């Protein structure tokens, strides 16, 4: 498993197993094992702005683009 750091801001992700843990914990939210809560929330806000056409994809920060695109393409977001 990864070392438990956010892919964007390098903050520690809370809720992941430590090296000596007896049970394996998982995070069920979108991008739970890749992004911290703040970056995940920001990616969802940016995806909503792109979907509502108040912002275009080119103006989204490059580090968030693949996450924003993944959120837009997901079936849950389309509702």
State the main characteristics.
79 residues, mainly alpha
End-to-end gap:
32 Å
**Rg over CA atoms:** 14 Å
- What are the segments in which pLDDT stays under 50 over at least 5 consecutive residues? none
Average pLDDT reading = 81
Count of DSSP strands = 0
Shape: globular
**Roughly how much helix do the residues carry, as a percent range?**
25-40%
Secondary structure class reads mainly alpha
The major β-sheet equals: none
Strand content: under 5%
H/E element sequence: HH
Number of helices: 2
Structural description of this entry:
By secondary structure, this protein is an all-alpha fold. Helices cover 30% and strands 0% of the residues. The chain has 2 helices and no strands. α1 packs across α2 (65-73). The longest helix has 15 residues, at 37-51. It is globular.
Topology:
Blueprint: H1 37-51, H2 65-73
Helix pairs in contact: 1-2
Structure, briefly:
The protein starts with 36 loop residues before the first helix and ends in a 6-residue tail after the last helix. With 79 residues, the chain is an all-alpha fold.
């Amino acid at each position: 498993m990864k070392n438990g750091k956010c892919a964007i801001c390098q903050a520690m992700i809370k809720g992941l197993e430590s090296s000596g843990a007896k049970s394996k914990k998982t995070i069920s939210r979108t991008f739970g094992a890749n992004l911290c809560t703040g970056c995940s929330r920001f990616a969802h806000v940016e995806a909503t702005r792109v979907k509502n056409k108040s912002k275009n994809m080119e103006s989204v920060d490059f580090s968030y683009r693949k996450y924003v695109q993944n959120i837009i393409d997901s079936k849950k977001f389309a509702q």
